[in-house]
Design goal:
By secondary structure, the chain is mainly alpha-helical. The chain has a domain of 34 residues. The longest helix has 15 residues. The relative contact order is 0.05. The model has no long low-confidence stretch (mean pLDDT 87).
Length: 76
Amino acid sequence: MTAPAERMRKLRGRRRNQGNREVRLLVPDLRNQSVRAQVAAEVARLSPDDEDEALAWIESISEFDAPDRSGDDEAR
């Protein structure tokens, strides 16, 4: 095995031993003009009413992510 390939094998082994796993993620290349045109076309088809509804829902449930601080003053 070549030196760089051996170093990568060892690096992956160390990461696995630390409980990590390497994954590869493919995403659209926004530098490509045809990809940008496709994204723009999809955005143009979005419904503002549906987007508003989705944002309202996200805001309504976001309170569940915040820690409950209602009893902090009483606990002190």
